């Protein structure tokens, strides 16, 4: 059995059986559509309603199959303003509202104008009726027509010499080759034509455009690429070569990229990245800046922070300390003793062997001071530390990322 099919419900078979037995008309003028409650539907004969009804309306036409006279195709249109929903189940009801036919349906979106699309959805339900001659499909003659009726009307119309002249010009205009300035038709480009990018009139469909993009978005898929790193000018100058570190403003890199933290990578899975980093280890770029290589440095070598050798000027202002003096004091006098046969000087001297010893005072020295020479001398100078732990410039923190390829 096909994945998608319709069948008669038990209630429907009872209704059509009763119509045959009572020689009454049998008609199914109402169509119903459901979304299956969000899940695929497997129709069963015991169903009396759809899993989840989302629309109900009238049948617009019934056509007899050209290959099986017992099969009739019921057609109806879900209007453009109905939705949005996903069609997963369909059915037909008779005049009493009994669900007679039920079927499942491929998941099909029914959008509305708010979704960016506005269109009617045409649905056709094939219904097989055994002994169709005994069933009267009594419906509006404007709705149902046999294939013979349709063929006869078409033949009569075509026999008229000017049957299509009123629309021929319009059709011819719309089926002409479309251009940038004129509406018309255009062929869909093949994948080779999309890859070549030379046609100016053929249409590129999304699947082929995606296939082209996948073929050029990675370094490994670029045609005629150089085998050495860094690459020379090639056919896709807009693509950055794999290995270039780029600043990224979040802690989560985009798909196909990694933050450079000194980690290992698989050189077999990412051969293009291995051209830039043959060791299979990415540089740890956390807290690092990129600097142009000097002629005497190794590529990818790390340089620790340092301050260029320099000097500081410093001086201590000179000071004239002048002449220094001792305190102004020291007033005192000295006494002397003397006699006829000799004299002895001193405050506690006794005369010996002398007579008529007399005592007299020496002239007082008075208060006085002494000068002190300070002489040549120096002062020590100390300069305090200042600044951060390392040299830096004004900056904003980003993560360095690199593409895996």
Structure notes:
- It is built from six helices and 17 strands.
- By secondary structure, it is an alpha+beta fold.
- The strands form five sheets. It has a five-stranded antiparallel sheet with strand order 1-7-6-2-3. A four-stranded mixed sheet has the order 8-5-4-9. Strands 10-17-11 form a three-stranded antiparallel sheet, with no helix packed on it.
- The radius of gyration is 55 Å and the shape is elongated.
- The two termini are 46 Å apart.
- Residues 136-146 have low confidence and may be disordered.
Fold topology:
Blueprint: E1 6-8, H1 10-21, E2 30-34, E3 53-58, E4 61-64, E5 71-78, E6 85-93, E7 99-110, E8 121-128, E9 144-145, H2 147-159, H3 165-175, H4 191-196, H5 206-216, E10 246-248, E11 257-259, H6 271-276, E12 324-325, E13 335-338, E14 343-345, E15 358-361, E16 371-372, E17 399-403
Parallel strand pairs: 4-9
Antiparallel strand pairs: 1-7, 2-3, 2-6, 4-5, 5-8, 6-7, 10-17, 11-17, 12-16, 13-14, 13-15
Offer a quick outline of the entry.
It contains 6 helices and 17 strands. The chain is α+β, with helices and mostly antiparallel strands. The model is unreliable at about 135-145 (pLDDT under 50).
Radius of gyration: 55 Å
Terminal Cα span: 46 Å
Strand content: 15-25%
Find the structural class using helix and strand composition: alpha+beta
Helix content: 10-25%
Instruction: Enumerate the strands of the largest sheet in spatial order, edge to edge or round the barrel.
Output: 1-7-6-2-3
Coarse shape: elongated
Low-confidence stretches: 136-146
Order of SSEs? EHEEEEEEEEHHHHEEHEEEEEE
Strands, total number: 17
Q: Provide mean pLDDT, rounded.
A: 78
Number of discrete helical segments: 6
Please describe the biggest sheet, giving its number of strands, its sense, and whether it closes into a barrel. 5 strands, antiparallel
């Amino acid at each position: 059995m096909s994945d998608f099919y319709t069948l008669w419900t038990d209630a429907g078979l009872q209704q059509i059986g009763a119509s045959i037995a009572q020689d009454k008309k049998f008609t199914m003028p109402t169509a119903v559509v459901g979304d299956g409650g969000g899940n695929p539907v497997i129709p069963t004969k015991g169903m009396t309603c759809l899993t989840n009804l989302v629309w109900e309306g009238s049948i617009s036409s019934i056509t007899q199959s050209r290959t099986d006279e017992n099969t009739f195709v019921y057609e109806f249109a879900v209007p453009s303003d109905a939705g949005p929903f996903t069609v997963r189940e369909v059915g037909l009801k008779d005049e009493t509202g009994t669900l007679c036919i039920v079927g499942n349906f491929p998941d099909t979106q029914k959008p509305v104008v708010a979704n960016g699309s506005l269109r009617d959805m045409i649905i056709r339900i094939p219904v097989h009726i055994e002994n169709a001659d005994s069933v009267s499909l009594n419906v509006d003659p404007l709705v149902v027509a046999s294939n013979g009726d349709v063929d006869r009307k078409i033949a009569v119309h075509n026999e008229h010499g000017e049957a299509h002249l009123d629309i021929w010009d319009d059709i011819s205009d719309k089926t002409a080759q479309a251009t940038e300035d004129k509406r018309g038709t255009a062929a869909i480009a093949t994948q080779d034509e999309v890859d070549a990018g030379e046609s100016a009139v053929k249409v590129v469909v999304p699947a082929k455009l995606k296939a082209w993009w996948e073929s050029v978005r990675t370094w490994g898929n670029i045609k005629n690429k150089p085998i050495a790193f860094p690459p020379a000018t090639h056919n896709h100058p807009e693509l950055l070569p794999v290995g270039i570190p780029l600043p990224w403003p979040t802690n989560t890199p985009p798909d196909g990229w990694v933050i450079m933290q000194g980690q290992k990578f698989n050189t077999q899975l990412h051969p293009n990245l291995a051209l830039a980093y043959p060791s299979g280890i990415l540089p740890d770029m956390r807290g690092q800046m990129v600097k142009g290589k000097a002629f005497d440095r190794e590529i990818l070598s790390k340089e620790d922070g340092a301050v260029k050798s320099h000097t500081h000027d410093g001086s201590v202002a000179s000071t004239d300390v002048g002449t220094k003096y001792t305190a102004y004091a020291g007033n005192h006098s000295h006494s002397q003793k003397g006699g006829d046969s000799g004299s002895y000087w001193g405050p506690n001297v006794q005369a010996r062997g002398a007579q008529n010893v007399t005592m007299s005072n020496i002239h007082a020295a008075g208060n006085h001071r002494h000068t002190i020479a300070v002489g040549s001398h120096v002062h020590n100078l100390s300069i305090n530390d200042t600044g951060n732990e390392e040299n830096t410039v004004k900056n904003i923190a980003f993560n360095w990322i690199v593409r895996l390829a």
